Amino acid sequence: MDFWLSYATLAAIYVLLGLSTNLLVGIAGIFSVSQAAVFGVGAYIVAYLLMNEIMSFLPAMLVASAFCVALNVLITLPALRVSGDYFVVTSFGIQLLATAIFTNWTAGTGGANGLPGIPPADLFGKTLESSGQLVVLCLGAMALGCVAFWLIMRAPFGRLLRAIREDELAVAAAGKNVLRAKVSAAAMAGAFAGSAGGLYATFLSFIDPSSFDLDASILLLTMVVVGGARTLAGSIIGPFLLLALPQILTLIDIPTTIAAAARQLIYGVLLIAFMLFRPQGLAGEKL
Amino acid sequence: MSEYLSATGLEVSFGGLRALQDCSFTVERGRITCLVGPNGAGKTTIFNVITGFLRPDSGTVSFQGTSLDGMKPQAIVAAGIARTFQNLRLFVDLTALDNVIVALPAQTGEEPLAAIFRPLHVAQAQTKRREEAMRVLDHVGLAARAHDHVRNLSYGEQKLLTVARGLATGAELLLLDEPASGLSAAALDQIMALLRRLQSEGKTLLVVEHNTRVVQQIADEVLFLHQGHLMARGTPEQIISDPALADIYFGGAI
After folding, report:
1. From the list B93, B122, B168, which residue is nearest A155 (CB)?
2. What is the predicted ipTM?
């Protein structure tokens, strides 16, 4: 039973990340491979604020989200200047830089050893310790995220982003401020990733750089590709499916030493296969 | 009645190529002005300069007495100038209606926070926008295709849609880049009728056009561009009957 709860909790958190990645990559067409870095910054901030008892969970989440909004806008700024292909390389660099900081800034992040003993989340003075309470919290956050995403997509803002992804120049010629729309998309994606980070830190009570490295960023992209770009359903299906994969692998009898490698291998194969044979993912549109 | 749109001394170079050389001209309000000239004469470059997509090396453009120099494309649209593109640049994955809606001026819910926190208000405004966009589509004769994806429209319909998108911005000066090229005779008649109708409704049109028959039928005035410079201006008859211009236009190299 606990296994299913923790699976659902983790998947809910990754849905928030999927929404974040989908908004940025799928909808706005800003091909970022550094979303895990933003996720990590959110996690470390909440961990730091709670461990040092600076504030309680909700305000810490707000601080982390606000910080990640600013951070994501800042790191996607190059994408607003240079187009597509160049930005992939830039964001690749940002991801490596972030991993280096997470790993080496021992005083702030605990370095490679990570930060153990992060206090559980609390709501209105009540500590949420049982896995049942946590899953409700994370599913609740996921639901809020999904509603926000749905509202964004059906509003003129969503249409504007789709138009920008198709033809920026034509959007500018229609009298719209392309830069502002992209900054807004990056900000929303930052808020989603940051709050996912906060939930992740309090759920696991331990974080280390390996959760926020390039592999993690690629996992997020895989989720969007497999689930389907630009749709709410795709952002939900992707994480739930891909997070089930490690569990399915444990059912097949393979040694634990190669399980991690096998997982990466499967992610890679999935990415290639979907791009070749089903670019719209299971429930989405072509990336 | 002068100086509705005026360009003075425009210079644009791309590397060694001088696309515009001391190019000056004016466009008068309420008229259809055709911009003609051989390929590479700088017609599209002029559009890019007027609409803020390209900053000239020197020279100025002013619209209704206000200088447009240094203004961003969206500011120029807000000032009342919209353009179409020769290669259409429609949003092919969106419906015809959505293509028009995107171009309607400042909309409630174009900001994510408004979309999330005032959903009902946004939905209400959306209904109004949809009606507005339908009126624009109806105006160009595309109402029946409103919910079709652009990729399913005929080329002629796509051309009409680019005009609809320009109209949706509310601009009074429309810059149309080859609206009639590649069209069948029927589609040609349809778009020429539309352009005349827009003129009668008070729009001013600056049109890049190659087809001399179209130019003869719609133009009040013709600007003849050659090697980035305004070579002549006059009525279609004056321009077409000038043998020197015809020579340049139909095979200047000979």
Report:
1. B122
2. 0.92
